[in-house]
Amino acid sequence: MKTALISGGTLFALALVAFVILMLSFSRSCPTEDSDMCYWDASTQGNGQGTSYVSILNHTIPINL
What we know:
Layout: H1 8-26, E1 38-40, E2 53-56, E3 59-62
Antiparallel strand pairs: 1-2, 2-3
């Protein structure tokens, strides 16, 4: 008897969705600091100071650009 929490096809689909969300976030810069699904390059946006980050589903992840 086979039991699995997540089938291979479901796991692949979830990984694909996560990949698409990440690619959409990195593909466009944020027009404002409170935007979502984008990246903020602190060295070229705003006052040129602060921390760069990626905003994904209202969560910010600091990054080094």
